[in-house]
Every structure is written in C-alpha cells, then in structure tokens.
Fold this protein.
Amino acid sequence: MSNVNVEEPKSLFIAPVSKPAPGSVGKTGTWRHEKPVINEEKCVKCLLCWLYCPEDTILRREDDMVYVDYDYCKGCGICAKVCPVNAIDMVPEG
Amino acid sequence: MLLTWFQRGDDGMVVKTLTGNKAVAHAVKAARVKVVAAYPITPQTTIVETLADMIEHGEMNAKMIRVESEHSALAATLGAAAAGARSFTATSSHGLLLMHEVVWWTAGARIPVVMSVVTRAIGPPWNIHVDHNDIWDQRDSGWIISIAENNQEVFDLTLQAFRISEDPRVYLPMIVGLDGFILSHTVAPVDIPDQEKIDQWLPPRRQPYVITPESGVVMGNLAADEDYYMMRYSIQTAMVEAKKVISEVDDEYGEVFGRKYGGLVECFHCDGSKYNIVIAGSWSGDAKEAVLKLRDEGYSVGVLRVRYFRPWPDEEIRRLLSTSKGVLFIDRSISFGGKGHLLTEAMTNLAESTNLPAVRGVIAGLGGVDVGADEFYELTKSFIDEVEENGPFYDPLYWHIPQVYRGKYPERLPGYGKFSYERR
C-alpha cells in the first residue's frame, strides 16, 4: 500500500515484530535429543521427508539427495516416520 | 429514524442534535476511517448501524467487515490497521469481554486503533444499563482509556483519539468510553466542525510498521523473556509520553475548534477547594449541579472529573487534591474483594502527598441505578459535615444502597469500615 505513512516511533519502542529469517529465535537444534541420520544407500529420493519436515530443516541437493540442517532440526522424527524405505534412523544425542 | 435539525454557521460549523452513538459515527466519518469491523451489541449497536448506513449511501468511503463475534471484530480491525488502514470498532459489556484477548494483542502490537466502549453492566443477571465495570476491566491492557461526560465530548474525544493513538510518541490503541443510554441513546446538540478544518488538523495515518506481503514483517513471534519484559517497559514509556500528547492535543483542539477540556482531568471549581468529588462519566454533570448548589450555600467544594483512566492522571490528582481537606470518590464499579476503581487508583497519589485528606469511597449506580443531583448533594453535604464535626477519617467502601433496599442492608461490610486518624 503506497499511501501508508510508516513513521519511526519517537519514544522507546520495542514491538513484537520480526522479519522471518533462519534462526530468528536462536539455534533450535539444541532442543533435540534424538537426531535423524540419513542412510544414503537406502534413500530412494522420494522427497517425502523434505515435504513433511515442519521446520524446513531437511535440505535438498541438486541430485535430490537429502541432508539435515542440524543447527535447526528439533529432532521431532517426522522424517523417519514418513520414510517409506526406513532410510532415516533416529539416533540418541550425546 | 430520528429527525435531525441543523444550523449552518458562517464558519461552516454545523450544530446537530445527535445521540451519543451518532456523535461517534459522525466523528469516525470525519476522521476518514477506512475500515470498520464490528458485531452488534446493546447499547453500542446504533454506532455501527449508522456507519453501515453512511458507507452504504456513499457518504463515507470505507469498508465494513461483518464478522461472527467481537473477538473477530477487533481481530479484523487490528489486521486492517496493521496493513495501514485507519480502523475503528465499537462494543459494550459482554462483547468487550469476548474480545478481551485481542484487546491485549492490539496494544502489544503497538498498532493505533480506535474503539468506542459504550459502558454497560456485565451479566448475570442480564442488564443493559450503564455501569463502569466493563470499561475499567481493560485498564491493565495497554490501551489509552478515556471517558466522556456528554455527547459533544464524545464527538471531540473520538476525533482526538485518532490523533493521539497515531502519534509517533504513543503508537497505542485508544478506547473512548460513553455511558450506555445516558449518552448513547439520548440526543443533545453537537457541534460538528467543518470537514476541511478537520482534514487540516488530523494528519494522514501514521504507524510504526505495516504488515503487507511486500513488507515481509510478521507480528507475534516467540521472543526471549527479556525481550518480552522490555516490550512491557516500552508500553509504559509510551503511556508516559501519552500524558504529554493528550494535553497538547487538548490545547490544539481548543485553539482550532474552540473546545478545551483540561487534558487528563477536568477541574470544575476543584483547584483550591476544601472538598472535592472525584468522578467519571456522564453523571459528573449531576455531581456538578450538586456542587453548584453547595457552593451557593457557602461550601468550598468542586469536582475533579477523570477524563482519562489510562494513562492515569497521577500529577493532576496529586496537585489538585494536595490541599483538599476531604475527597469523596464516586465509583460506578467495584473490584470484588477490593474497592472502587477511582479510589484505588487515586489513593496511590494521595499516599505520595504530604497532606492526607479525609476520604470516603462511595459505590453507587451499579447496573444503571439512577443517582441524581439531589443524591449527590446529600452524599457530599453529609460527608463534609462529618469531616467538619469529627475530623479526618478513612471510609473506603461505602455502599450507596438503592432506595428500595436502604435500611435492610449495612452500608459498610466487615473489614471495610470507617476509621479516624490523626492528620499528618
């Protein structure tokens, strides 16, 4: 909208707004207690894990092989659950 | 439909006879509001009814969003406002309580929005008459909260609310309160200033950020506890700024349109008076009438009318009541297990004062029970006479029991009794 007049606040102003960006609330990977480990030999590149991941932390290479962004993966295990060939193991952390 | 007579002066000003609700609608139209979202509830309904009519007939260039509840009404208003449109909603009582969650979201988002609250009792039992428990229930939410005495002030406050709320020093939403039926459905003359003058006085909408597909901004994300804490701190900072802005706007409005009310409070013979009544809303007029009669009889007494409940007029109350010998609070609300709202707030200011006057807190008029000027006269006169005779006392919770029940129930309950003290 072009007629909106956004003007800087003239007093101390802290608002609950943000521009969505990776890691805007910190590295949520530290929340994880089980990590998904992808077995590339079993993977059939169906990309179901990539589609289902609620945090967008299953990443896709050019050849459609997938890998995990462990900085932000919370370890929910949905990817392991939906994998039709059991190519993802949930391995306890630490 | 009510007949409206009007008279056009040389300066383009129009005097109309309007109900309080129609005065709101005319102010909203004059402010060139772009989005109205509301759900009907008595006694607010005729505000949005009138606005819907104005929009339908092309008198007002705005979008009316019909919603399924008050929770949605304020959510839609907030959404439109966040996207950059000057937005308005109105409600009462149960509707206000249903939207209470979004009341907090709106203030927390720091998005300017204006809402009329037509004050009404909260059930059960069902009661549609005037009572202040609904509006004061919003006091902790971060909204600026004002309340009018008459229909002219309803118009003026509503127009000013856009200016105050959208000031970059404030950026908080604002409630304009008007008493159910006493103002909302009663006609009185209202000056409506020339539209060109209003357009010059009220700048285009300003806000701290916009939420649009292009802006890429989102509101309501998870934040660290420390950030949350500092957002609360910043709302309080804006409230401090709002005190200045409210006074400035009142002054400027007075210069441009000829009506000035005194800012956060109206002082009616209150400065230097030995006794004062502290009151808010439409029945302040009855209190003033009683005060005029008492002054004719030689009593030194005035009225301090609270126009803004948030930000609370700390400095004004401290200053104006610092020389009082006695203060009579009239509350049309009760915080159960606590006391009346005006008394509770103002006592913190009196505690800061070097002079502690005699105090009586009166709970009256709940659920619309009528209290006229004659009763204010009796309440005030007996308070003054008691103080003059017996010296100072603290009497925080005196129930002005309705006539039909009077004498059957005690006016003071155990633990809230009257006690005397040494003057400090």
Summary: Chain B has two domains: 6-257, 265-420.
